[in-house]
Design brief:
Length: 135
């Protein structure tokens, strides 16, 4: 994966993408219509996935909500999307765009160098070396 042209995304950028994709003027408004609540749910799930370093409070701050509202929105996303599959379509579209243009969240398994993994690898190599020298 070439990450030279990629960067880490911030909750504000995901907020802007959701607003743009759904053609919503102010996602942070206090409006509780289905259109706005579902858009916020999509934002919460995307921000949680792609901004692992951001706290729930920071994610909620973009839409003038607290961390408890973010937790509630994360729980309700799948339930709402069952009845309105369009939510999954929007989520997938934005998620694919983020995968292409930003550094993916989490660690790459190849670069996971914990002390335990290194010790296990050394033990495996020692066993292989002993087997070769004993033959």
């Amino acid at each position: 994966m070439d990450i030279k042209n990629k960067r880490i995304i911030k909750p504000k950028e995901i907020f802007d993408l959701v607003q743009y994709e759904l053609n919503i003027n102010n996602l942070a408004s206090k409006t509780r219509t289905r259109e706005f609540t579902q858009a916020r749910f999509i934002y919460f799930v995307l921000a949680r996935k792609f901004c692992r370093y951001a706290s729930l409070t920071a994610i909620g701050k973009e839409v003038n909500r607290d961390h408890a509202t973010v937790i509630n929105g994360l729980k309700k996303f799948d339930t709402e999307a069952k009845y309105d599959p369009y939510m999954y379509d929007i989520y997938d579209k934005i998620s694919n765009l983020l995968d292409e243009n930003y550094i993916p969240p989490g660690r790459n398994e190849k670069f996971d160098l914990t002390f335990e993994r290194i010790l296990k690898r050394i033990e495996t190599l020692e066993k292989q070396l002993n087997k070769i020298t004993n033959d």
